[in-house]
Write a structure and sequence with these properties.
134 residues; alpha+beta; 4 helices
Amino acid sequence: RPVRGLENYDRAFYERHYNKQSVGAFLSFTKDTEQLVKTKGWPLEMKFNKHYCGFKHGFFNAFGIQWIGSKTFAFFFKLPKSVAEKIQPDDIKMDRYEDLWKQAVYKIDPAKTKVKTFLPLFEKALNSITGKGE
């Protein structure tokens, strides 16, 4: 079988697999989230994958932005379900909890969603992954 090299997950890749207008918004949210991470001085590395952009502490994702359709994407936070259900910043409701991945998912509306609104969730997920949380 032919061997395929590692994919380059860039704008062109995402535009081939997802809605072109949504790709721009997805990349904008990843950039804004990366800026927040840098501003806060959090020890996280941004890494793009086929279906998401994760912010990793070592090997593990703390949070990120994932595609949930060809046009729709959402924040995900690696938190226990009980913790995620208690945190509702500015009346934002969790879309769903994915037990398999142990993550809370919050849909992003590019016209309304602001990255900083999710600050309590970012902090809790970071603390959870670094061992500083509950």
